[in-house]
Write a structure and sequence with these properties.
By secondary structure, the chain is mainly β. It has two helices and ten strands, in the order βββββββαβββα. The structure holds zinc ion.
Length: 175
């Protein structure tokens, strides 16, 4: 499988030599000093937050990639953090909401383009319960939010392919 970043990483980050090449989809090796560099899958959490009347909370992306398109709340896990802690933190940062219960649904492999680099991601999807929406606020890397019945979600308004996959999954699973 081809490494999507083989054209971007040309010099060994350890010794600085140019003889630095992709070994497989996720790793590189320096022919001079034998240093191995891995771009492993990053873990990310995606929240499906349903209101009491079964609408789904969707957000609008403030930044690239897919700036201005719809998205689901969530984000990347920090080092040392559980995926559950990641999700609770991201929902607080992005929306000022407190998740009181989260239920793991499934994971989805994805890729994410950021500043020319292709990152492989493992998205962990959770159904989340929020008791109180009174203090909801668009913050951090989102610029707006709305509540939509799942049947009315328009996949074309979601910019990331990964999120389109999640929408298919939501519809297929009917939760
Ligand atoms: Zn080297």
């Amino acid at each position: 499988m081809k490494n999507p970043n083989s054209h971007l990483f040309n010099f060994c980050p350890r010794c600085g030599e140019k003889n630095f090449t992709a070994v497989n989809k996720k790793s590189f090796q320096c022919a001079e000093c034998r240093f191995n560099f891995y771009l492993n899958c990053a873990a990310a959490a995606i929240a499906l937050i349903f209101t009491p009347d079964n609408k789904l909370l969707v957000t609008r992306r403030k930044y690239e990639p897919a700036k201005g398109s719809l998205d689901f709340p969530g984000g990347f896990a920090d080092p040392g953090e559980t995926i559950e802690e990641c999700l609770v933190r991201e929902i607080k940062e992005e929306l000022n909401l407190d998740v009181t219960k989260l239920t793991y649904i499934c994971s989805v492999p994805n890729t994410y383009q950021f500043k020319d680099v292709t990152y492989d991601i493992t998205d962990f999807i959770f159904a989340c319960k929020v008791e109180n929406f009174d203090h909801i606020l668009a913050a951090d890397d989102i610029c707006d939010f709305e509540f939509i019945f799942p049947d009315l979600l328009d996949k074309n308004k979601f910019g990331l392919d990964s999120v389109k996959k999640v929408i298919d999954m939501v519809r297929a699973n009917d939760f």
